[in-house]
């Protein structure tokens, strides 16, 4: 029911906030285009599905669903603590990595504070900043979407509170090499909190890749973000975590809702964490798939950026929008670059061998006809 005389105003900042653009869900494309087979290569999900161990854990927990979940996700916390060689007080489990970004924003940002965000990158960092009336300060990536430590340092002012580093970066697949990360952290003032979003760490194969975890162990002002949504294949159940010095975790816990992570998510994540076979298989499928897509894109003459992640940023140029639409109509969902102000690009998640093959054959058909 629409009413004409509502006098209730939302906060002014909401007028400047753009909602997150998610990858199109499979059911929507099936319905819109009347398709049975739809392949989604749009949200960097694990094409192998969840770990079977996670599914078993969920099953066995179902009879206990009348109980509230553990406030601190203690079982998962203990498992993470052992894996990461970090005390439990240096870890916080969240409702997806996204919630950690919200908690960081709520715990640390005053109106007018500045948040340094490389650009293009994951949109939630700027979203969290705006929500708190803080100011995102975009720092463009250089040629080939490489990070520049000097550019990031030059953007820091008296008001800088947070610096976000997404490495490997979404949507470019590029990363900040280890020695550059160290130089950046050594050069920043200690009052600046650096958020190292290594959601895609498990896919990185470069020898000088650094997920930032060692800096947490050193007690630096660093928060490392991780998620169970990507390589662990649990995007639908919503669970991620942060690692940081205990003092920072204490501040984050102050703004957290008590039961932020549901019981099934806690159990599933703990089981997935222990399933090394599934992790290894997922890594292998991704590495082979990346290669398969590189070869296919090269053969079609479509430029791309080499990726340390489970997606590839391709640059079909003028044809990007047409390609995105045409593939959708054929049941292959990609992510348009428009949301990142990259109208000449599309982002392609790495699928199974079969899915990649289907994508490449639809791409070939499109290139021929356009
Ligand atoms: C997917 C993703 C996350 C976390 O996603 P959740 O599903 O909320 O855990 C965080 N950062 C980046 C860059 C991502 O791509």
UniProtKB/TrEMBL annotation:
The keyword Membrane is assigned to this record: no
N6-(pyridoxal phosphate)lysine carried by residues: 230
Record GO biological process: L-histidine biosynthetic process
Record keywords: Amino-acid biosynthesis, Aminotransferase, Histidine biosynthesis, Pyridoxal phosphate, Transferase
Entry keyword annotation includes Amino-acid biosynthesis: yes
Catalytic activity as recorded in UniProt: L-histidinol phosphate + 2-oxoglutarate = 3-(imidazol-4-yl)-2-oxopropyl phosphate + L-glutamate
Needed co-factor(s): pyridoxal 5'-phosphate
Domain of life: Bacteria
Sample GO molecular function, one term: histidinol-phosphate transaminase activity
EC number: 2.6.1.9
Pathway: Amino-acid biosynthesis; L-histidine biosynthesis; L-histidine from 5-phospho-alpha-D-ribose 1-diphosphate: step 7/9
Aminotransferase class I/classII large domain residues: 38-361
Pfam families: Aminotran_1_2
Enzyme class: transferase
InterPro entries: Aminotransferase_I/II_large, HisP_aminotrans, HistidinolP_aminotransfase, PyrdxlP-dep_Trfase, PyrdxlP-dep_Trfase_major, PyrdxlP-dep_Trfase_small
Self-association and partners: Homodimer.
HAMAP family, A to Z: HisC_aminotrans_2 (MF_01023)
Family of the protein in this entry: Belongs to the class-II pyridoxal-phosphate-dependent aminotransferase family. Histidinol-phosphate aminotransferase subfamily.
Protein name in UniProt: Histidinol-phosphate aminotransferase
Source organism of this protein record: Cohnella zeiphila
Origin organism lineage: Bacteria, Bacillati, Bacillota, Bacilli, Bacillales
């Amino acid at each position: 029911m629409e009413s004409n005389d509502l006098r209730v105003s939302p906060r002014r900042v909401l007028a400047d906030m753009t909602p997150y653009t998610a990858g199109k869900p499979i059911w929507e494309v099936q319905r819109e285009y009347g398709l049975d087979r739809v392949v989604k290569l749009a949200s960097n999900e694990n094409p192998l599905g969840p770990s079977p161990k996670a599914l078993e854990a969920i099953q066995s927990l179902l009879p206990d669903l009348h109980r509230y979940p553990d406030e601190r996700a203690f079982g998962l916390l203990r498992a993470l603590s052992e894996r990461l060689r970090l005390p439990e007080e240096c870890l916080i489990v969240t409702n997806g990595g996204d919630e950690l970004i919200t908690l960081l924003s709520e715990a640390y940002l005053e109106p007018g504070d500045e948040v340094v965000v490389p650009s293009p990158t994951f949109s939630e960092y700027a979203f969290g900043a705006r929500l708190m009336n803080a100011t995102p300060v975009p720092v463009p990536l250089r040629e080939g979407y490489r990070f520049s430590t000097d550019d990031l340092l030059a953007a820091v002012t008296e008001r800088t509170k947070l610096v976000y580093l997404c490495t490997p970066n979404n949507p470019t697949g590029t990363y900040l090499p280890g020695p550059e990360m160290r130089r950046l952290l050594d050069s920043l003032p200690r009052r600046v909190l650096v958020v190292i979003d290594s959601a895609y760490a498990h896919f990185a194969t470069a020898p000088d890749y650094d997920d930032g975890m060692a800096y947490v162990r050193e007690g630096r002002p660093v928060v490392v973000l991780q998620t169970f949504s990507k390589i662990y294949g649990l995007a639908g159940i919503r669970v991620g975590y942060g690692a940081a010095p205990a003092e920072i975790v204490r501040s984050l816990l102050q703004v957290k809702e008590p039961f932020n992570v549901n019981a099934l998510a806690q159990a599933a994540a703990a089981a997935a964490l222990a399933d090394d076979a599934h992790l290894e298989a997922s890594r292998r499928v991704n590495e082979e798939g990346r290669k398969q897509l590189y070869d296919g894109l090269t053969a079609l003459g479509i430029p791309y950026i080499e990726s340390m992640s489970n997606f590839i940023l391709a640059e079909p140029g003028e044809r990007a929008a047409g390609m995105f639409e045409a593939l959708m109509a054929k049941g292959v969902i990609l992510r348009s670059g428009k949301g990142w102000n990259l109208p000449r690009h599309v982002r392609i998640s790495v699928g199974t061998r079969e899915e990649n093959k289907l994508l490449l054959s639809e791409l070939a058909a499109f290139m021929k006809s356009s």
